[in-house]
Amino acid sequence: MTVKEFQRSVKEGIPVKLPAAKSFDPSLNHAPKRKDILSPEEKRLAVKNALRYFPKSFHKILSKEFASELKAYGRIYMHRFRPDYKIYARPIKDYPAQCTQAAAIMHMLSNNLDHAIAQHPHELITYGGNGAVFQNWAQYLLTMKYLSAMTTEQTLVMYSGHPLGLFPSHADAPRVVVTNGMMIPNYSKQDDWEKFNALGVTQYGQMTAGSFMYIGPQGIVHGTAITILNAGRKISKSNPDLAGKVFVSSGLGGMSGAQPKAAVIAGAIAVIAEINPKATHTRHSQGWVDEVFENLDKLIARIDKAKKNKEAVSLAYQGNIVDLWEKFAEKKVKVEIGSDQTSLHNPWAGGYYPAGFSYQASNKMMAEDPTRFKKEVYKSLVRQVRAINKMTAGGMYFFDYGNAFMLEASRAGADIMKDKTHFKYPSYVQDIMGPMCFDFGFGPFRWVCTSADPKDLATTDKIATKVLEGIYKTAPKEIRQQLSDNIRWIREAKKNKLVVGSQARILYADAEGRIKIAEAFNKAIKEKKISAPVVLGRDHHDVSGTDSPYRETSNIYDGSQFTADMAVQNFVGDGFRGATWISLHNGGGVGWGEVINGGFGMVLDGSKDSERRLRSMLFWDVNNGIARRSWARSKEAMFAIEREMKRSKDLKVTMPNIVDEKLLKNLF
Ligand SMILES: NC(=O)c1ccc[n+]([C@@H]2O[C@H](COP(=O)([O-])OP(=O)(O)OC[C@H]3O[C@@H](n4cnc5c(N)ncnc54)[C@H](O)[C@@H]3O)[C@@H](O)[C@H]2O)c1
Question: How many CA atoms does the CB half-sphere of 391 hold within 13 Å?
Fold first, then answer.
């Protein structure tokens, strides 16, 4: 299809003529059949809701088709309306648009649905099993059409994938405002998602899927490499080097697939179990996994060899993580660091596969006998924790990877509680990311070169390296380690071949780093050293974006970890400080109802307006979180915000007074 034809198709939106039906493509990774949760009356409502997108003349055919999709998949995806063109992050100039900002958003959105990127592309799921960009293809088509027509005096409003419409606004307003899964709090249980998503009125946007900010596994490789490096520092201050040390975990999916590559970058031996052969194959063929094993004895022999030779290597086990842990515990395999990255935020719909069943058999049971499936998942979790406990008794350091592993294991009745309220093991945020990164303001800043030209990305890498090296020279000792880890990362980023999809880069940076890097990019765009606009963004999994008591805010200890003011304040504050788009989600990462997260996207086009917006918005976006962490008495955050107040005279943050614990001891 030519660029012109592509543009025509985007501008058309929902086709005037009913397109031919599309067949199921077995070569792609598909979402599992969702739970059959609607009553017959609700099913009729779901079909009626879906038909709202189409003219009456289509209804006779589509009503039957949508009913059969609902029966076959548990959802109405409207497969017939998948576009005929290939969806990927095209150069920005190829998108039909009235303004640069809208074209940049189309570039980002398309990347989230690229077959090389998305986990279940035909079901519009980007990662995490249920992280949706849209609920159905009509929403995609309409959104692209609206974006192609949008001016800088309009804002597109999106309710859980549904484009409510273009509304008059102004040039400084966000071009798109996204909310995903915002529920009345009492209707935020897992089954509520199943029901209201099946009705077509809400979706699970995860963090970066429904906000068009997913950049493939690179985003997470960096965070994971930093986590594993710092875990190495945690287990041994005298010998933090990971050479010859083993890191064991599970999952080769969207985010979890970054583990083998990240562990190798950190210098360790990675051993990752994955039950889905397609997921294993994807990571192996990408070169992110070095070797695949189906036999645990052979795997153990290979680990021994890697230990002896101090190889940095990644080994996948094609099978269930429960079997691996049980075998390792039985054979007393020495593992230094352990974790888990099955998608336990989504345990009943494909996030966790019970032991003793093949991948296919589990998928069948999930749809046909959900009660038994739930029992089997819980049985497996009890076994998994038992084996992990044996390993930690033997000296392994285990941490929860923010996937609701401990939460779900506790619900399963596994031996995972230290006492009534505390888990046995820390989360990676409590021990590592919180105190070492987030409290100082370091988080997953990212950018995308919308030219889609690798040369532009190389230029931005060089600019960012120079900026960080400059900052390092006068940085206080508290943040030197962070800066040097990131300087190393960005220097080696190109060599590590991390780009899948759009020309994107991730880099952990604090407010100062983010602002200075963005300013330098904007200048380079103005001077035509970078050939097209650059989009700035971040994972919601950051200093500020996310309120999640078992993950991002698990190292908040004043009780406020169960509040969601920070995420909402981020979303709103970014909106009026110049973000190009903003998004607020219920349910990313650890599960529906368990987290609220907010994020943004910002287009830099080399203009004075971009410069003004980036300074104002990035400053707020990071410092909101640090101020909140400081109020929760984190000493690292108190240090960071006091330092910022000295630099920025308009910043006045309420500081906590610290109480002598002895005074409290006998009060009650
Ligand atoms: N990487 C990070 O930094 C990070 C941070 C926070 C949270 N998480 C969490 O990690 C989880 C994984 O994310 P994802 O995007 O990779 O999800 P995903 O669903 O794409 O991948 C999970 C993988 O685990 C596999 N799996 C499930 N049960 C298994 C079992 N018993 N044995 C072996 N393999 C099994 C699945 O087949 C799947 O491929 C999510 O809950 C996410 O929220 C990751």
Answer: 30
